[in-house]
Amino acid sequence: MSPALHDAYLNARRALLAERTAAGHWEGELATSALSTATAIVALDQVDRARHAARIAGGLRWLIAHQNADGGWGDTVKSASNISTTLLCWSALTRSAGDVPIAAAETRAAHWIRDYVGSLEPGRIVEVVSARYGKDRTFSVPILMLCALCGRLGPRPWRRVLPLPFELATFPRHWFAALRLPVVSYALPALIAIGHARFHHEPPLGPWRLIRLLAWPRASRLLETIQPDGGGFLEAAPLTSFVTMALASSGQKGHPVVARAVDFLERSVRPDGSWPIDTNLATWVTSLAVKALRSYPVGSEREPGLIGDATGFDQKPVLDWLLGQQYRERHPFTDAAPGGWAWTDLPGGVPDADDTPGALLALRLLSGAEHRDEAARGVTWLLDLQNRDGGIPTFCRGWGALPFDRSSPDLTAHTLRAWHLWEADLDEANRQRIVAGKSQALAYLRREQRADGSWVPLWFGNQHLRRDEENPTYGTAMVVRALIDLGETDLARGGLAWLLANQNPDGGWGGGLGTPSSIEETALALETLAPVAAVPAEALRRGTDWLIGATRGGTDFPASPIGFYFAKLWYYERLYPLVWTVGALGAVAAREEA
Predict the structure, then answer these.
(1) Domain boundary residue among 276, 308, 323?
(2) Which residues of the chain have pLDDT under 50?
(3) Where a domain ends, among 216, 250, 276?
(4) Any idea what the Cα angle at residue 481 is, between residues 286 and 407, rounded to 5°?
(5) Predicted TM-score (pTM) of this structure
């Protein structure tokens, strides 16, 4: 191993270990969000402007200070301006508080919107927002609702906000896939609250008026039932804020959901007056960190499953914490069965098909086959989630009508790795189900592979691929890694070729050839390619040199917004570049040592 690689790996490893909480796991830090800040301002204003004046003023100051040079706002401070976030921020600027000077920022935002939309005419704004999201109303309707509340949609603004059939939420949960709701599975609170607000402000004529009037008491109770103890729906300020402003604007300020939601918003605001896109991804980054640290075990940690390590990686607290995050009861929000893991340790989390396989993989690395019962529950949860097409969706089986509910190659690949690792240690019934599930999942991946050999993920993208904002580097790396684990070398061959062909001239990787190289994407590609003997050493050397240089020898890890949050909102996580650098350099080190 070269001295530069050795030093960079140890530096990055030490940095990752230093990020643990007092409880021994990782928590990370999500990007601050202009969108979250704008929605929180409007929600607090709708509830009680006088009481929340300081919070509103602080948020406005942050928005003004972080307006892009072109007059718009992006989802993160590293993101290009987009129409959704800019509309929300422009509208939020009408919620004046104290002596915050908003006129100049408002004018600059209006110019950006006019240039993008063609005018500030409400009808044209509605057309552009609706076209951006198509038949999925998960985000278009909340945006237009906020614009209506802030006076940006002209007279009788609620006519321009599409109605949401909140009465459908009162049907049995297992009917939802067949009902083809106009929002994705995780947006049930928005369906109820915003649907009721639209009904309140612009009630329909005929029988629908009576139907929705009669449905509201039951829907209202359901909304209260599915609200987490912490008050934040999905731990997300935007969703919680949309629900809050919808209720407050429709005569429901005294609703129990509003009080708990406001408490969540007050607790989640940051010292600079802004709000993050979500509270944390603690479970996700912990499972990522465990996998990264085991890519090249050091010292006594080389013994598989060993608990305790002289280098400072005390694994038992992580193991105990991770086991404590597995859901033991049916989830009230998505009606998910017990056995899965969510992205966070907080009450707003929902079990999903990326964190569950991530936790299963980490569990195996931390304890060998010791916790078979917990693993069997997680494996069964994933088997029961598998769609008819063989792929794995994020939250709910059968919700394939809208983009973020469909099967996804990256989730399917992650699940395949977890099934494969635990298969031999489970009972015969589970082993038979895994064999069948793997066969269907591999068939799905064959169908989803693009002609150029790549796969695209669901929850990650690249802002520099302006046409579609996809991230085939992430998707292909995730799928190829699973295929190599399973010995599916023929199917992996096209993906390996794509990764090698899309290495940038500087040695790094971006979302595709010619897009700027990033630490995250370079590390993911390297960690996938390093264990493959057929991969040329020169490609690995160039990638490793780029990564060592970009991280200043494993000491500096600037993050890039490659993550997609709900409704395609960009985010970055401070630990992503650090975690994936440790995994990549460890994988290269392991290859060189071998």
Answers:
(1) 276
(2) 300, 302-310
(3) 276
(4) 80
(5) 0.93
